[in-house]
Design goal:
Order of helices and strands: HHEEEHEEHHHEHEHEEH
Keywords: ATP-binding, Nucleotide-binding
Protein name: ABC transporter domain-containing protein
GO molecular function: ATP binding; ATP hydrolysis activity
Radius of gyration: 25 Å
Helix content: 25-40%
Number of domains: 2
CATH class of the largest domain: Alpha Beta
Number of strands: 9
Strand content: 15-25%
CATH topology of the largest domain: Rossmann fold
Number of helices: 9
Shape: elongated
CATH architecture of the largest domain: 3-Layer(aba) Sandwich
Strand order of the largest sheet: 5-6-7-3-8-9
Distance between the termini: 34 Å
CATH superfamily of the largest domain: P-loop containing nucleotide triphosphate hydrolases
Length: about 280
């Protein structure tokens, strides 16, 4: 993945050289088309152009526009945590945490590694039990959760296109292939069995599935780890346009910057809320 941008640059360079050559050839043809002395050379160049396999530019992220399906409307409050306690044996992670996510809020969870960001995200998503307190799910709240380990839940014996087709029957195969292409699955890659994919590839499939759900509350834990720059921008734009609620656990400030409007810092078992975007948080921390 880290070499993809370099490959794209090389491809663009080759494309430009080929386009220059094509223009020169066409100019020669036009200039000498009606000169008998150049007839053989003209015909030779015409045949060269006909046989030429043109280089195609890599698809630009601005040309790929992916939108989440319009989510069903939830109640005013998506979820509320009251006096939440969570520990692993004698290791207490949280005590007495109160937290509310309102409809269409987009929130970043930030803080040092090991502070409990993923733990809190999993509890909110309903993927992890807690020791005490309350977790109250709001009216008509439908949650989708993504983390790097969620790929373990993918069916290994079906191919990639079947994996996403099963949750988005209203999408055409062409639309599904466009979405998968945005996550670096090109051409016949979409017919690979999930079981033969690497961990990073499985994570990208799981992320593509999230984009096809009809959830109105999405929890994403480090979603950009296996994405190249182009794919990251595609996901970023989709999240900006998403009409539901969102929690993003991420260390990628540039990714979070245009998306979130509230920041929650998690540190030493405590949460502190900053009612503004990433810039506001960085100023106030």
């Amino acid at each position: 993945l880290k070499f993809k941008d370099e490959r794209d640059e090389q491809l663009i360079h080759k494309y430009e050289l080929q386009q220059k050559k094509i223009k020169e050839t066409k100019r020669f043809i036009e200039r000498f088309r009606y000169k008998n002395t150049k007839a053989k050379q003209v015909q030779s160049r015409i045949k060269q152009l006909e046989k030429l396999e043109t280089i195609e530019l890599p698809q630009n992220e601005s040309d790929i526009k992916i939108r989440f399906l319009e989510p069903p409307k939830s109640g005013k409050v998506n979820i509320e945590l009251i006096s939440l306690v969570k520990s692993y044996g004698d290791n207490e992670i949280f005590r007495g945490v109160d937290f509310v996510v309102n409809r269409q809020e987009k929130i970043a969870f930030v803080g040092p590694n090991g502070a409990g960001k993923t733990t809190l995200a999993k509890i909110i998503a309903g993927n992890l039990d807690y020791n005490n307190g309350e977790r109250i799910l709001g009216h008509n709240t439908i949650i989708s959760y993504y983390a790097q380990d969620v790929a373990d839940n993918l069916q290994p014996d079906i191919d990639i296109i079947e994996t996403v087709d099963g949750i988005a029957e209203e999408k055409t195969i062409g639309e599904l292939r466009s979405i998968l292409g945005a996550f670096l699955f090109q051409g016949d890659d979409v017919f690979k069995k999930v079981g033969v994919l690497s961990g990073g590839e499985k994570s990208r499939v799981a992320l593509a599935k999230i984009l096809l759900t009809k959830s109105n509350f999405i929890v994403l834990d480090e979603p950009t780890n296996h994405l190249d720059i182009s794919s990251k921008k595609v996901l970023q734009q989709a999240l900006i346009n998403f009409n539901g609620s969102l929690i993003l656990v991420s260390h990628d400030v540039d990714f979070l910057l245009p998306i979130v409007s509230r920041v929650v810092e998690i540190r030493k078992g405590k949460i502190q809320t900053f009612s503004g975007g990433i810039d506001y948080y960085l100023q106030k921390r």
